[in-house]
Every structure is written in C-alpha cells, then in structure tokens.
Write a structure and sequence with these properties.
Blueprint: H1 3-22, H2 28-45, H3 52-68, H4 74-89, H5 98-114, H6 120-137, H7 144-161, H8 165-178, H9 188-204, H10 210-224, H11 234-250, H12 256-270, H13 280-297, E1 374-379, E2 384-389, E3 410-415, E4 418-419, E5 426-432, E6 439-442, E7 445-446, E8 450-454, E9 457-461, E10 468-476, E11 479-480, E12 488-491
Parallel strand pairs: 4-12
Antiparallel strand pairs: 1-2, 3-5, 5-9, 6-7, 6-10, 8-9, 10-11, 10-12
C-alpha cells in the first residue's frame, strides 16, 4: 500500500476507536475494549517516524481507553495507560505541543493517583509532578477551567493517597483554589462538588481546632445544598443531609440537645430519598441513628440489640458478628478518609513498594491469647456496657451483651472497589466509628492485616477469595457495621 493508503486505513481505525469510546449506550467495558483493539490496529499502521503526530494522538487515546475501563485488573489497566501516555509524550513535548503535553500530563497524573497498589508516597509524588507540569501551561488566566479542574484532581490525589493529616491541608488548599474559578454563578455544579469535597476534608481533619474544622465542614455541606436540591440532585442531596446528620450527632461542643435535634432534621430529610425499597442499608443505618438519638433525648438508653431496623420486605443483613478476638487490636497512626490529605510534600526517602508512608505502622494480628483480665468498656450511642473475661476461662459477667450489629460503625466507601481474587490489594475503607476496631472482613473472610488510620479510615489488605462481590465490614467492641452498597468489593 502507498503511504496515503496506509494513512487513510490507520485514520479509519483511529476514528472507529473514538466512536467506540464515545458511545453513550451499551456495555461501557465492551465498548472501551473494542476501542482499544481499533487503536492498536491503527498503531500497527502508524509509526512514530512517518506519522509522529498521528502516532502520539492514538497513544493518548489508547491510554485514555485503558484508564477509563470500568472492570478487569485495575492495576494492569492503569499501567498500560501510563505506558501509552509516556509514549505520547515522546512526541508531545512542552515546546512543540504545549496544550497536548499539558493534557497528557493531566491524564498521567490522574493515572498515578488512581493506582490501587505500590508505594503511596511515590505515587503521590509522581502525580504531584504531573499536576505541577500541567499548571505550567494551564494557567488560571489562560485556561481557567482547565486550571480549576487540575486543582480539583490534585486535591483528590492528596485525599486518596496522601498522608491524611499532613496532606489534608494540601487538599483543602487545592479545593479552595478551584473555587476561585468554580463560582456559584458560573459553574454551579462544579462549585457544589468542590464544596462537598471541602466539607469531607474538614470533617476528616483532626489537627488544629476540631470545632472550627467541623464548623467549616457544616458550612461547606450547607453551601453544596444550595445546588444539591431534592428535585435536581436527589442522591447528592440525601448523601449531604446524612453527612450533616453524622456531624451534628457527634459534635463535641455546643448544646447537646440542639445538636441532636439538628441531626434528626437532616436524617429525616435524607430518608426521603433513602427509602427502604431502594436503599435498605442506608435507611436502616439512619433509622438506627434516629432511634438512639430519640432515646437519648428522652433520657433513656438506646436499645441493647443495637441492630438497625430491617426495612419492610427486606431480609436482615448477613455477616454481622460480634466476636471479641483474643488478638490485640490493630492500631495505627495515620488516616485516609477521616483525615484527608493536604500539602504537596516531597520525600527524599527511598521508595518502599506496597507499603503506606513510613509513619504509618501496621501490626499483624498475632493470634496470641491474652492471659490477663480484660475489662472492655463498650460504648454505644446512648449507653455503656461492661463485659469481663478472665484467664481462667470463667464465664463473663451477667452484664448486658454488646449489640451484634453496630449502627455507630458505618462503611461509606471502598477504594479501590475491586481487586484480584488472589488477594493482597491495599484497600482504603472510609466511614465512621472505626476507633478500636478489632476486625475487618471481606465477606466471610478476615483481612490479612489492617490499620486503623483514624476514626473514619482503615487501610486493609484484601484476603484471597473467589470471584464475585462481597461486603466489607468493620467489627468494633460495640458490634459490626451494617452492610450497604457503599461497602462492596468485587473480586476479579
């Protein structure tokens, strides 16, 4: 074939790949796999020497297809995306193709951010370098929207893979920068999304004035509700109402009765969307919070069963247990979602693959029996339970048994939400009430090891399991978290 024929055939394959990638209907994963096949066919015809611009464009689109694949081996897909982006950057240089270079650097940064395993600090540093490169071209004056989007993604990187308390403030700075462009009037949806992220970052921030942090979180969530209305964004509205209810329910200062009444108001608004037929777990969790709050307001104690009400027509959640293991509880000194990340640090320490940053210490459950008298004070939302066990194997005291399901412990997010059936994936679990956690389970299988980063975040290693979707649950002395769609992890 002539050079022209080769070019036309390659262009057809490239355009076909773009069509598959852009299809608004059908199986998204199948569409992107078909797109990847087309891009790879185009690359067999385009070579870097004869068609450098076209070759780089196809490499970029191939990287995007790998990065956007919703299923399969996430680590392998992102590694393929990284390789394609680096290929594209052999042609897309800052001098020759500044906007294409910046666009590719942005995607490259997001790929480093989203890697489910590896050295977290190295991933964050690589992502940070990419975002800094992007901002050399995407300035606020010349490309305001691209600049703001980069700030938002950079903030997400600090939250997702950063060192939480250090990097949370960096995330907050990035989100606040994004709001310089994402104003309520010009970009209402992006403004609300950024306010929501800021609220979550402040809520997770433990350093500094905790009351001020929570007040900032409340202000940000309430700002988001100016756009997140029940009529237009029902799910976002309900989620934000639930987040506000959680804050007021646990607010450490102020008038307790007023705080609890505010929590009731937000929870009751949330269950206008979280109805039992469509969101049984969310509905049950909120009902449990409401039951305990009302018991406290009435001067009583919350129900000793601790189990959230089961919605009409719904089976009770499975997998909830209340085992007090003999192993010492796992502890840690860092965070991931209760303490989002914040400041653009650099590390001179050599990379340590597959581990959290150095200051995060993990302890494996040793399985050694504790031959001491163990006094466990089990705190629930409205009462205190005492359980005593001794080394002579005697029976516990007749104090009320702790609840088997703990509405105070909730799992609201899993990242990444999928991994290999061989296990070994580092999984960040976010939610509430994790302090003192004694176990993490993927379905019926216990995690190999886990770290309680803070009250709202746990980092765990997935155990081996058969392919399929399981609920990730957290067990504390007060019981086990209820299951929901937010806690699901898929083995591939």
């Amino acid at each position: 074939m002539s050079t022209r024929d080769v070019s036309e055939l390659a262009e057809t394959q490239h355009n076909l790949g773009i069509a598959y990638s852009s299809m608004p209907v059908g199986d998204r994963q199948a569409n992107l796999k078909d797109a990847s096949v087309c891009y790879q066919s185009a690359l067999q015809l385009y070579n870097r020497t004869t068609f450098p611009d076209n070759w780089a464009a196809v490499q970029y689109d191939l990287g995007s297809a790998y990065q956007d694949l919703p299923g399969g081996d996430r680590q392998a897909n992102l590694n393929n995306a990284l390789a394609s982006y680096h290929n594209a950057l052999e042609v897309y240089t800052l001098v020759a193709f500044p906007t294409e270079w910046a666009r590719t650097q942005h995607r490259l940064g997001n790929a480093h951010r989203d890697l489910p395993s590896g050295d977290y600090q190295a991933n964050l540093n690589d992502a940070t370098t990419c975002y800094q490169n992007v901002l050399q071209v995407y300035t606020r004056e010349a490309f305001p929207e691209d600049w703001a989007e980069t700030q938002l993604d950079w903030g997400d990187a600090y939250v997702t893979i950063g060192d939480q308390q250090i990097d949370l403030r960096n995330a907050i700075n990035c989100y606040q920068d994004a709001l310089l462009v994402y104003t309520h009037q010009a970009f209402p949806k992006q403004w609300a999304e950024t306010q929501d992220r800021l609220g979550s970052a402040y809520r997770a921030l433990l350093n500094g004035d905790q009351q001020a942090n929570l007040n900032n979180a409340i202000s940000n969530y309430e700002s988001a509700l100016q756009i997140y209305t029940l009529a237009v964004f029902p799910l976002e509205w309900a989620r934000t109402q639930s987040n506000l209810g959680d804050i007021y329910r646990t607010l450490p200062t102020g008038n307790r009765q007023t705080n609890l009444l505010n929590a009731i108001g937000h929870y009751e608004r949330g269950i206008q969307v979280y109805i039992p037929e469509d969101f049984p777990n969310e509905w049950a969790t909120i009902q449990a919070h409401l039951r305990n709050i009302r018991a406290e307001l009435e001067g009583g104690q919350p129900p000793s069963s601790g189990s959230p009400s089961v919605p009409p027509g719904q089976p009770p959640s499975s997998g909830s247990t209340n085992v007090l293991p003999t192993q010492p509880p796992t502890t840690a000194s860092s965070t991931r979602t209760e303490e989002p990340p914040v400041f653009r640090p650099s590390s001179s320490a050599p990379p340590q693959p597959n581990v959290r940053p150095p200051q995060i210490q993990r302890r494996r459950n040793t399985g050694r029996r504790v031959f001491v008298v163990l006094l466990i004070i089990l705190l629930t939302a409205g009462g205190i339970y005492f359980a005593i066990s001794s080394s002579n194997g005697g029976s516990p005291s007749t104090a009320p048994a702790p609840p088997s399901s703990n509405p105070g412990t909730t799992v609201t997010g899993i990242s990444p939400s999928s991994g290999s059936s061989t296990g070994g994936a580092t999984v960040v679990i976010t939610g509430t009430g994790f302090t003192g956690a004694t176990g993490v389970s993927f379905g019926q299988t216990a995690a190999g090891n886990f770290t309680v980063d803070n009250d709202t975040q746990i980092t765990a290693t997935s155990p081996a399991a058969s392919s399929g979707t399981v609920d990730v649950t957290v067990t504390t002395p007060a019981g086990t978290s209820t299951t929901s769609t937010a806690d699901q992890f898929t083995y591939t």
